[in-house]
Fold each of these.
Amino acid sequence: MSKQSRQFQVPDALANLYDFANTLDVRHFIEHGAPHQQDDELKSPEDLAGWMEQRRLTRPGTKVTPAMFATTLRLREDLRAYLQRDPLERRGKGATRTLNEAIAAFPLVAELGGDGANLRAAREDALAGLSLLVAELYDGARDGSLDRLKMCASEECRRVFYDRSKPATRRWCMSTLCGNRIKTRAYRERQRAAG
């Protein structure tokens, strides 16, 4: 679990998935007079290896090939596209088709043990740790908690957040920033149209 997932109280069961989706920062707004700097934590195979090692998803020194890196970026892109949809829209086959194609590269094996059943990676290479993200995705979809993982509705933000509101109807990662920015802009546009 990262500092960010702890700060925003993302449940441990979805923390790695949340962190992975947010490795790409496409925010492009101006705050306190300064433009937000966009970033990508996964610029290279080495960055991916370090990111997974930091979260104990792989052993230290594990090498990620360029092909593995490309597979990972596709998973992230399809995951973000899926989370961008309203939770009710996610249930359609069209919404899940590309994500299912991406997660096929990260197969899981069910194992029974003393503590019940667990899913583990079928892969034995450097990307085996990302199969644990797919297990989080599966568990979250099964218990409904994945519906609370959403993408901010602000076009200037697009950050993934965990909706802790009781009715699970939040639209923005932070209503004080993104929500306020959108509401203020809409108010100004109405004032211009009226005037």
Amino acid sequence: MPDQQINSLFLDGPAGRLEALLNQGSPAATHAALVCHPHPLFGGTLHNKVVFHATKALNSFGFPVLRFNFRGAGLSQGEHDNGQGELEDIRTALDWLIQQFHLPIIAAGFSFGAAMVLRIACPDTNVAALISLGTPVASVDGRDYDYNFLKECSKPKLFVSGRRDQFGPRSALQRTVALAALPKQLVFIEGGDHFFEGRLAELRHAIESWVKETLGK
């Protein structure tokens, strides 16, 4: 499918406006998608390479795809809130997608964005499926991630990580995914690190293959 138009916009978030980009979808789109970026205090923005490639993969099916900057990142107002206010930011983005498109949502995130989107989107009835890229499972700069809630999350879930991910050691990630409710799929990218450096094509292929298999595309 040819590249879709990209629109720049702002969402009205609880801490002020949130900078966002929307990759327009097909009029016949069956789903809309959201992609959340990695930790803003470590350079994460909506322009992150992994976020960009995940967006392109989902947009290739004609889905409208929204990505935005968490509070305090880029042109988004507010200040980083240690993962609490950021959940509200995701809620703002999900609500906007529903109001605009009235379609089931595929919610995706990378690293910090993955941890956040899993937590807020699992119980959301508007979210049909979840994609977690570079899921952080090891303690990172004093931040510990708890995924016990995945035991109750029965939506289709894709986990993709590099086999050399320094923030998601293979054995620890396997234990986390093993606890999650079905359906689920775990894909390791050979030679990939946390940022999928040099392996972004494989990342896109993993996402596209899962969407085809899970959603019948």
Amino acid sequence: MNKKDFEKTIQKPGYHFFIFSCPAKIPVNYFMHTRIVTKDSEWNVHRRELCHFKNTIHPSMGYLHNNFLLPWQGITKYLRTTKTHFESNLVLHISGEKWSIAEKIVEFTNKKITTYPYKKNYRWIRRNSNTFTQRVINIFPELQIKLSRRAIGK
């Protein structure tokens, strides 16, 4: 999803919950990196994900990042540069008003993000960005979604 499409989508009122994916960094780009983006009723947009490097702005968050990159932006393609990004793929988008499943997920994510149990552990094969995304999916089975087999660590 590009910036224009993302901004058009979140202009609709209410709560929005997105799961985005993109390839993992080269040379392991066969695998995927997933992340969660939310928009609440106050128009606050948050991108949340686990990355392979620690959060230096909020060290207590470990590897968990909030708004490290723009919501629609894929991660950087290469380990040593921050200039070239993968294109994001929309995996799931749900929206709704007060009392909807979208509100429940957005509110849960906003309130419980700091309690994620594996935020201080990051591994390429397990406990990575896909583990974080899968945890939200597991808590809300109403989403009825399965991450791809390429989402190693789910």
Amino acid sequence: MAVQFFSADARVPALPKTKLKSFINELFIQEGKILEELGYIFCSDEYLLKINQQFLQHDYYTDIITFDISERKRSVKGEIYISVDRVKDNARQLGETAFNEFLRVIFHGALHLSGYMDKTKSQQKMMRDKEDYYLSKFHR
């Protein structure tokens, strides 16, 4: 499969990787994209902070950073870095399970690679609606 999961952090909850890989491929098909290669890397706050500083010149913690390295317009090739610390912290603050919050962030990164942004209020609403849609679809 074109989707791979890597973990530098043992605190990632057990994810149904086979189901997720297939579902992510279907997400891209539904969004009109062709999945070539996608790596999800689960890491610590400190690791992701260094990436944020080095590549984006941002000096703050974040839950996810998505790198689009696609070479063709409709194709998807990328790397998605996810902070286990931030996702677990966000889940606690939102009263959500860590499992669902990890799914949301996983789909969030895929949606970025599908062309969705989240800088403005309307973009954030569209992104949240899409995340909710795919979360609901995944749990069916």
